[in-house]
Write a structure and sequence with these properties.
The chain is elongated and about 135 Å long. The protein has a domain of about 180 residues. The termini are far apart. By secondary structure, it is α+β, with helices and mostly antiparallel strands. The longest helix is centred in the first third of the chain and has 20 residues. The strands form 2 sheets. Strands 1, 3, 4, 5, 6, 7, 8, 9 and 10 form a 9-stranded antiparallel beta sheet that branches. Strands 2-11 form a two-stranded antiparallel sheet. β8 and β9 form a beta hairpin.
């Protein structure tokens, strides 16, 4: 009996010593996987997934999902996801993540890391997508591109029953800058994110129970229109329009037209004053249609014309 107990103790010590002396696996080694293995993808029409870097920890899988980037400012458009649960990695207390809720201090540090030099403004509006509430900040880079940084923690709201398996959690960040997108278009990326991956462990379900369908769907008297979808107001003001320099316009020289002199009728008793040019056009004091005065009829051709003042009335 004593020998059996001693033998069991020796085996236990040997097993413990072998576990302690066993070289630790490099669980935090990062490897590149196929883009089709991305755990989270943007909505249809969003930036394409170009690469996925995956890191395996003892209690989580971290993925950096690189998205297509078209801006000149520093940084890469990406989705950063941490998936908590029994992912199959060997237990290592030094290589573990704690699924804490994001704090504003942690969010500001992350924005300084992923969006250097961009002044971000945290939105004061409540927003929620298909997986629950999320927060976001918007800012404009020096290149003129509009940037968004979103964060969300996906976890079931109801408490976990005793002795029930862990349900897991998903912690994600979205970083996108686009020179042509509006704030609503960038915000639509957070609304349309799709979790396509899963953990094949029993009980893993960070989404909770699916909500019941709207009882008004299909009922008469409850119209549903797609135009009811509304976004919140903008967080940052729109970019100022670019001033375009134009050459000063030269004012056109106005055309001066001289109206012909008005024709007047000579009153009886006033002499006719001939036109200095010798033509029959009317002068300022007479018309060619007027009859010559009797004093002019006595003058012969070639004699000077004497200006006779008009009689005083």
């Amino acid at each position: 009996m004593v020998k059996g107990v001693v033998l069991l103790l020796a085996l236990a010590v040997a097993s413990c010593s072998s576990r302690v002396n066993q070289p630790a696996l490099n669980t935090s080694a990062t490897r590149q996987v196929d883009p089709g293995q991305a755990f989270i993808v943007p909505p249809p029409g969003g930036p394409a997934v170009v690469a996925v870097l995956e890191t395996l920890y003892s209690n989580a899988v971290a993925q950096e999902i690189a998205l297509r980037t078209t801006t000149t400012n520093e940084g890469q458009n990406a989705i950063h996801a941490k998936v908590f649960g029994p992912v199959g990695g060997p237990y290592d207390p030094t290589e573990r993540f704690t699924p804490n809720l994001p704090t504003m201090n942690r969010i500001h540090n992350e924005m300084r890391e992923f969006l250097p030099g961009v002044r971000m403004q945290v939105s004061p509006y409540f927003a929620q997508n298909s997986y629950g509430p999320f927060g976001y900040a918007v800012g404009r880079a020096a290149s003129g591109a509009l940037c968004i940084y979103g964060w969300q923690k996906i976890t079931p709201n109801e408490p976990r029953p005793i002795l029930a398996p862990t349900r897991g959690a998903v912690d994600l960040r979205l970083r996108v800058c686009d020179p042509t997108a509006s704030e609503d278009e960038l915000l639509n990326l957070m609304y349309g994110l799709v979790v396509v991956g899963t953990v094949g462990a029993f009980g893993w379900n960070p989404f909770g129970k699916p909500p019941p369908a709207d009882p008004n769907v299909g009922r008469a008297g409850y119209p549903i229109s797609p135009s009811n979808w509304e976004y919140t107001r903008s967080v940052v003001p729109a970019a100022a329009p670019v001033a375009v320099e134009r050459a000063p316009s030269v004012p056109a020289t106005p055309r001066v037209t001289t109206a012909p002199p008005a024709e007047t009728t000579i009153k009886p008793g006033y002499p006719r004053i001939p036109d200095p040019s010798g033509s029959n056009r009317s002068s300022a004091y007479g018309s060619s249609t007027a009859k010559p005065a009797e004093a002019d009829s006595t003058k012969e051709e070639g004699e000077p014309i004497v200006l006779v003042p008009p009689p005083t009335e």
